[in-house]
Amino acid sequence: MKDMASDIERVLISEEKIKDKVSEIGKKISKDYAGKDLMLIGILKGSVPFMAHLMKEITIPCTMDFMAVSSYGNSTTSSGVVRILKDLDFEIEGKHLLIVEDIIDSGITLSYLLKYLKGRKPLSIDIACLLNKPDRRKADLDVKYLGYDVPDEFLVGYGLDYAEHYRNLPYIGILKEEIYK
Ligand code: IMP
Ligand code: MG
Asked: Which of 88, 94, 102, 122, by CA, is between 20 and 30 Å from 169?
């Protein structure tokens, strides 16, 4: 069996750098939401490592829930339609929501989700995202907590997948082109 690391062109963000950044974001969230009814909403499956890590860096009481979505057809079109594969288990009315996501590319997935969840009248709704590809943005999005801006390369690891693999790498790496071409 081949090692995953041999499919990686180079490491873009090390495990150590991720750790520091997530801890910094957790501290900010703990300060900003002190005394508020905070609910973290992880978007499956890419957000799982970030969510698991971030929740441990948050020192105030909070609850959590998960959603699973998939882009409908061609995600590069601006229709912005996203299919909900798993909806929330809990009511969100009167809660302060923080959507936890791995990476924003076009922004279509999150801008659809924001609209969808706003309809259920949370007190506030914001985004915490580890990575952002600013060059690829199609939908306007305000990201309250952002880890790193990244170049337009195909990234894997720390939740990010290629064909459902590499999510368990502890760092963010650039996938070798020969793997997906
Ligand atoms: P958006 O709707 O275009 O912003 O889609 C964001 C989603 O695309 C993320 O949640 C990821 O699942 C996926 N994605 C975007 N860029 C990458 C990448 O470089 N590697 C793996 N998945 C990616
Ligand atoms: Mg995703």
From this structure: 88
